[in-house]
Write a sequence for this structure.
């Protein structure tokens, strides 16, 4: 068995390792949240562009273009 000093050093090292792991997990969670927000924004922009494109081209004209008179 180790000395009390060895135990204290080991416990301090474990504490530092746990704190580092928690910091890394927090950083990864923050990055994931930012990525999810960016994805939601990109999807919203895509949907807005799609709506504008559909509004600019009525459905009837896309399915059956008007016939030019002779």
């Amino acid at each position: 068995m180790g000395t009390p000093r060895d135990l204290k050093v080991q416990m301090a090292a474990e504490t530092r390792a746990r704190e580092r792991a928690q910091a890394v997990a927090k950083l990864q969670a923050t990055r994931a949240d930012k990525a999810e927000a960016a994805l939601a924004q990109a999807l919203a922009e895509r949907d807005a562009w799609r709506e504008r494109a559909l509004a600019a081209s009525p459905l009837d004209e896309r399915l059956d273009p008007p016939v030019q008179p002779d």
